[in-house]
Amino acid sequence: MQQPRPDEPDYAFLPRRPAPERSRWGTPIELARPEDPVAREPLRINGRESRSDNPDRYRQHGFYFNADNCIGCHACETACAEKNGLPPYLAYRSVGYVEGGTWPAYRRINISMACNHCENPVCLKGCPTRAYTKYAEYGAVLQDPDICFGCGYCTWVCPYNAPQLDLERGHVHKCNMCIDRLEAGLKPACVAACLGGALDFGVIETVPENRVQCEAAIPGFPDPAITRPNIRFQQAASTPDELARPDSVPVRYVRETPGQGEHRPRPDPLKLSRRRGWGLGRLRSREDPLVVFTLATQLVVGAFLALFLGERLGLPGLGAAEALRHGLLAGLFALQTLAIALSTLHLGRPHRFYRAFNNLRWSPVSREVASLAVFYNLMGGYMVLELFPAVAAWLPAGWGAALREGLGWAATLAGPATLWFMHRIYRIPARPFWNHWQVLTAFYGSALVLGPLAVLAAWALAAAAGLAPSVPGPAQSMLGLAALAGLGLEGFGLWRHARAMRREGGLGTAAHLEQTTRFGWTYLARNGALVLAAGLVATLAWMAPTGAAAAAGWTAALFLAGAAELVGRALFYVLVIPTTMPGAFFWKNPGFQDHARAVGLARMPQVGVLERTH
Q1: Residues linked to residue 112 through DSSP beta bridges, in sequence order
Q2: Residue 50 CB neighbours (<10 A)
Q3: DSSP letters of 542-561?
Q4: Were both Cys, which of 85, 140, 226, 543 would link to 177 (CB 3.0–4.6 Å)?
């Protein structure tokens, strides 16, 4: 347990100031009363029980940052890293900056940022393992690395870079508000180490001495309405109307009205490509397993619906193709198993995958995993009873068929529900490029496109090989129309998404400009492939070829549509620009990290860049 030193300076101790009853968001600052049950339970810190007599113990605390005083010395970073024993590639608190103006009126604004222990902690709600807890003591949002299994979803939803995904250890950890120091009456280590008096700490909304401002935002800070963070700022010195980031993120901050108002994020034309390119070398990302997982799951859902509903709606020829149905069901189950395995191995700690069900109340990840587990098991049960009717021979007459039918209808409902919960994962305010209903049209559209086309291609190939009856014209028309509907749904969503991103004006616009310039030819090729696939599917559905022509045509349609979906999903992951805090030219700079890995600098631990990523 941290204890004050005999010569501890006065500025290191927590202040005692009158506090208001409510925050600027209208929420109570007092989180518990002494008579509440939670106040009678001791905190356990480093295996020891603690009961501080601080009268402000159950009030929401927060940081204060005075940008006018910050000299960019990084003492706060160093003190935090030393206290928490952090490796060189991680920092709970980091100092970035924005800059603007021209000589001699050039300005640089440093920003020191850690976890803001928000009133609405989206990390807590997003975490599927319930590794996060917001405590009544000091209002701290704490995270338990031993519970975390390393999915990194909290790093997606947090707008401030607070949770740190440690790719070496396979889990997330973050700022803990130095709660052991708070229990001893001391300010956090970063605050006590600040040389310029830029950092301070105390009950939120109590303005420290020698401050003239207590604002909720500063240039470069994301919209505080997302999480209602417990940090307050002072930036009284004049600032240029336009401020740039020193890192590679193609965003700058601009005032709408010169000389007054807030700085809002806008695309930075100096960092955006002026030429249209392919960008194929940048299509790979850490999320590649999720590209395969999402597309494979959507294909399986679409194909299962085509098989199950097609037979019950009287799809011509499907009832006679029993061997084909059985083979497709087994193949779909195997593909879904592979997809689930890929997504599980994507975790930092795959052996703890079972913790994904822990936060069904709040986490979209937990809901997706639960709904997928339901669909997977229902589809598996239906497949087993379809392929091996003898399994249900012990049941009364007719019960086996009824059970199989019930499992099929339940899976038919669970499949689309899985895609709904899957799309909710990406509706993140901190990632404007994703936060659009187009994600839903993309996921349902992919299911409608890839599922029926996979069934048609497999059926036509089996027929050409003499393993199944020929695909009747009406069956080609019905499944082809379903695929066309999916292509139309996707095209409509992409059009409206592009229109919305052009109007958004900030991070979403910057991501869309990256899509149409650096990845411009790839983007056009994907759109063109969707159009060509629609034309080919319409032609095949109208002509209803047989034999080798049907096999070649539907296989080509599946390949063309699948390639378009694969490229589009890869773009989906690499283009998104999160509402991150500004970094520096070397530190917290994605561009420098890529450079360090490319030239071998990442092999030097002191550079602070991991050579490999999970």
Answers
A1: 95
A2: 17
A3: HH---HHHHHHHHHHHHHHH
A4: 140
The answer to whether residues 141 and 62 touch, using CB atoms and an 8 Å cutoff, is no
Find where tokens 């378009």 sit. 564
CA distances from 332 to 110, 212, 307, 458, 607 (A): 53, 64, 11, 12, 46
| CA atoms lying within 13 Å on the CB side of residue 419 | 25
CA gyration radius, the chain = 28
Q: Phi then psi for 477, rounded to 5 degrees? A: -65, -45
Helix or strand holding residue 486 (H, E)? helix 473-504
For 487, the token pair is 């292509």
User: What is the C-alpha to C-alpha distance for residues 388 and 326, in angstroms, rounded to an integer?
Assistant: 10
Residue 320 has a CB neighbour count (10 Å cut-off) of 12
Residues 203 and 16: their CA atoms lie apart, in Å, by 9
Q: What is the mean pLDDT of each run of 10 residues along the chain (614 residues)?
A: 79 88 91 78 78 88 94 94 92 94 88 95 96 94 94 94 91 94 93 93 89 89 93 90 94 89 92 92 92 98 95 82 91 97 94 94 96 97 91 84 94 97 96 96 97 96 90 93 97 97 94 96 97 96 93 96 97 94 89 91 88 65
Cβ(126)–Cβ(156) below 8 Å: yes
Give the CA angle between residues 212, 213, 215 to the nearest 5°.
175
What b/e readout covers 56-74, taking b as 16+ CB neighbours within 10 angstroms? Answer: bbbbbbbbbbbbbbbebeb
Strand partners, 494: none
Q: How far is CA 58 from CA 31, 33, 40, 77, in A?
A: 5, 7, 11, 27
- Omega into 104 within 30° of 0, i.e. cis? yes
At 61 the three-state DSSP class reads strand
Q: For the chain, how far is it from start to end, CA to CA, in angstroms?
A: 34
What CA–CA distances, in Å, run from 318 to 176, 312, 462, 540?
Answer: 60, 10, 13, 18
DSSP 13: B
Q: Compute the distance between CA of residue 204 and CA of residue 27 in angstroms, rounded to an integer.
A: 11
Q: Provide the β-strand partners of residue 93.
A: none
Closest CA to 372 of 303, 440, 419: 419
Contacts of 509 (CB under 8 A, 6+ apart): 266, 267, 501, 502, 503
The residue to which tokens 């187009």 are assigned: 438
Residue 507's closest CA among 169, 220, 80, 261?
Answer: 220
Q: How far apart are CA 447 and CA 453, in angstroms?
A: 10
Q: Are 564 and 526 in contact (CB under 8 A)?
A: yes
Output the pLDDT for position 463.
Answer: 92
Q: Give the global pTM.
A: 0.93
CA atoms within 13 A of residue 542's CA, in its CB half-sphere: 7
CA distance 55 to 300: 58
Domains of the chain (ranges; CATH) run 28-246 (3.30.70.20), 280-575 (1.20.1630.10)
User: DSSP assignment, residue 30?
Assistant: B
Between vectors from CA 474 to CA 450 and to CA 486, what angle results, nearest 5°? 25
* Secondary element (H or E) of residue 261: strand 260-267
**Residue where the block lists tokens 């990845």:** 519
Q: Which amino acid is at 613?
A: T
**298-301-302 Cα angle (round to 5):** 85
* H-helix segments, 159-285: 179-183, 189-193
